[in-house]
Amino acid sequence: MTRRSAELLRFRTAALLAGVLALTTSCGWSLWDSPMTTVRPASDFGRWIDEIFMLISWTTLVIFIAVEGLLLYCCWRFRDRPGAPLPKQTHGHTPLEISWTVAFAVVLLIIGIPTIRIIFKTQEAPAASALRVDVAGHQWWWEFRYPGLNITTANEVHLPIGQPVAFALHAPDVIHSFWIPGLGGKRDVVPHRVNHIIMTPERPGEYYGQCAEYCGTSHANMRFRAIVQTKDEFEQWVKAQQAEPVESKDALAQQGKEVFGKSACVGCHSISGVSAGQIGPNLTHFASRHTFAGSLMPTTPENLVKWIQNPDHMKPGALMPNLGMTGDQSKALTAYLLSLK
Ligand code: CUA
Q1: Is residue 169 within 6 Å of ligand 1 at its C-beta?
Q2: SS3 for 175-188, per residue?
Q3: What's the pLDDT tens digit per position in 50-92?
Q4: The pLDDT value given to residue 23
Q5: Distance 187 CA to ligand 1 centre (A)
Q6: Are 139 and 221 in contact (CB under 8 A)?
Q7: Which atom of ligand 1 is nearest to the CA of 220?
Q8: DSSP state at residue 243
Q9: Is the pLDDT assigned to residue 27 strictly greater than 60?
Q10: How far apart are CA 198 and CA 337, in angstroms?
């Protein structure tokens, strides 16, 4: 090797190492900070998954070091030297073959046993004290019903801290997957059957959820949020959701209510005391939610007007049709929806 090519090789190796370092450290930070991280679990379920993740990571690290160490040692020990005899090929070594078969079976058991245990543990029959939430995965939004509290909402599920929650998951249309990375999961949401997740949230906060099974055009737009609150905050939210929406005195909102009542909106959406549609999200307390349309957009007047005028543009494939509302009708409807606190 010439001096120049040796220098080039050294430079390339250094650049490669620097690249790997930059990549791994930046991954480390985003793992910790990202809103959908799984390495800062905020529930018992999340902690258990994190423990299995760490168990697998450390086990594989030990295996990696042992195998690579042995490989490097052999490369060095049996390297080609001038005058050394040619290596003798060996065929078949029963003790060696049995030992590496058994070793990998043991590794699989170490990983498999706790994994299967957690899968079953998180879908046992819930305790009587558990909060039941029925989840429906629709193309492309999430419906949350609290049968014990008589609340129906969409895309934002409120949970109290420290109380077990029993999610019952079903799908009216196609297969979806329910996943709140910060709280644990994921679990398939399948038509014609009910799957369960039992977990206890442990830290207040807003956790992003995401459909994790391809379910059509707007699969990636099928998001939701889990809002974990203190007991008091949750009680307040429950009271507000159970109350009838307050009739707004605002003239534009009144006009919007009229537009709503006379249009096809009523066929799909429920508003307590106004309409009884069941196909789309319940809008009784629409304005209490920070986001809408599969938690895709913040609930702002601008977004609402755009949504009403062209849902398909905001969420491709959206099943809500463009009803051909005029600009004035959309603005009135927006004012009405935003009055539904
Ligand atoms: Cu629902 Cu992907």
Answers
A1: no
A2: CEEEEECCCEEEEE
A3: 999 999 999 999 999 999 999 999 999 888 888 888 777 778 8
A4: 66
A5: 12
A6: no
A7: 2
A8: S
A9: no
A10: 34
Q: What is the pLDDT at residue 25?
A: 61
Q: Enter the tokens of residue 316.
A: 């491709």
The angle subtended at Cα 289 by Cα 288 and Cα 292, nearest 5°, is 140
Between β-strands 195-199 and 165-170, what pairing exists: parallel, antiparallel or unpaired? antiparallel
Q: Which atom of ligand 1 is nearest to the CA of 139?
A: 1
- Cβ of residue 186 lying under 6 Å from some atom of ligand 1: no
207-219 residue pLDDT tens? 999 999 999 999 9
Over residues 88-116, the pLDDT tens digits come to: 777 888 998 999 899 989 989 999 999 99
CA-nearest residue for atom 1, ligand 1, is: 176
Q: Which atom of ligand 1 is nearest to the CA of 175?
A: 1
Ligand 1 pocket residue status of 219, Cβ below 6 Å? yes
Report the SS3 class of residue 90: coil
Q: What does the alpha-carbon distance between residue 135 and residue 190 come to, in Å, rounded to a whole number?
A: 11
Task: Please name which of 95, 79, 189 lies closest in space to residue 141, comparing C-alpha atoms.
Answer: 189
Task: Decide: 294 in ligand 1 pocket, CB within 6 A.
Answer: no
Instruction: Give the DSSP per-residue string, 179-231.
Output: EETTTEEEEEE-TTS-EEEEE-B-S-EEEEEE--S--STTGGG-EEEEEEE-H
* Global pTM exceeds 0.90: no
